[in-house]
Write a structure and sequence with these properties.
The chain is mainly α. It is 53% helix and 7% strand. It has helices at residues 17-30, 42-49, 53-70, 86-95, 101-105, 108-116, 126-140, 153-170, 211-219, 237-245, 249-261, 267-289, 294-322; strands at 4-9, 35-40, 78-81, 145-148, 179-182. Helix 4 (86-95) packs across helix 7 (126-140), helix 4 (86-95) packs across helix 13 (294-322) and helix 10 (237-245) packs across helix 12 (267-289). Bound molecules: adenosine-5'-triphosphate and magnesium ion (MG). The site of adenosine-5'-triphosphate has 20 residues, from helix 1.
Amino acid sequence: MTTRILTGDTPTGRLHLGHYVGSLENRIRLQHDHELYVLIANVHAFTTRATDPDSIRRDTFEIVRDQLAAGIDPERATFVVQSEIPAIAELTFLLAMLIPYSRVMRNPTLKDEIRSKQLGDHYSFGFPLYAVGQCADILTFRAHLVPVGEDQAAHIEMTREVARRFNQVYGGEVFPIPESLIGRVARLPGTDGVEKMSKSRGNAIYLSDTADDIRKKLARLYTGRQSPTEPGDPNNVLFQYARAFIPDEGRVRELADRYARGDNLGDGAVKAEVAAAIDALVAPMRERRARYTDAAVLEILHEHTRRANGVAAETLARAKEAMRLDFTPPGSGSGTSG
Ligand code: ATP
Ligand code: MG
């Protein structure tokens, strides 16, 4: 049996370096010998942007384009546009009965998002529901492995609980218990040096940024250091970027060592090397991105939606059978509304 992988992104902006080191890199690597589903959580984007459907649609295209440009092969991987998979919505509702409301509201990822996105107590009813929806995303595809950044670990833990509970209550071993796979860098900080790099927080370096954008964003990075002879912190945000993106580890060690000693190494010089390394990573993506017009992306999404609905409908049918909700006449399809 091949291992199934599901992971994804919310179309609340384009993909950034945090996505790359947290998850995308693993997707690209694992697509060759695993069945990979890449979800575009466009329904969940409405939890914080319900009044802005045009930008959700635009970002859906951008996120698919970013991944094709980064090396996701549409012949191997399947993009899943969440809104087009009715089984996910049905399962969200069914799974919501198996998880206490208080458990959802204690989810540390949700709490952190409410704090950092300054949602206060004005968030929609649908906002916390997205955490259950994410369990449904993963379980609909009966995924074994979920490549994510550290911020998502709590959601995967909740998914494991829900899957166990479903299997225990209704039997049938419908759902595998998924494992998270945290990326090479579990949590890349943003250019504010405080919060995680995040597309909704204005602190991101995007995979689609120009060389000039990258240079400017790094130039603004604040380290608090006054002069090249002042000993610097070799674990500050600048050096976290250096470790993440300069491929030559020996070179990074040498820079960190001189920086820590205040051996005449200015922030500007380190920033220039980091900017060049990031540009070397994203330059080939820039070229490939140009090939994928909206029409080309849409064609891929149409084809992938058909594929994804096949798997999703089968899961839903199995889940409903286990729940004794199997009233669809045989041969009339999967029991989904789609
Ligand atoms: P938003 O601000 O809208 O929540 P985001 O930047 O957090 O957007 P998501 O779509 O929520 O992006 O996350 C997609 C995937 O990328 C998840 O697996 C998440 O853990 C991972 N990820 C996001 N930001 C980082 C980061 N800074 N470091 C490591 N992984 C990250
Ligand atoms: Mg997020």
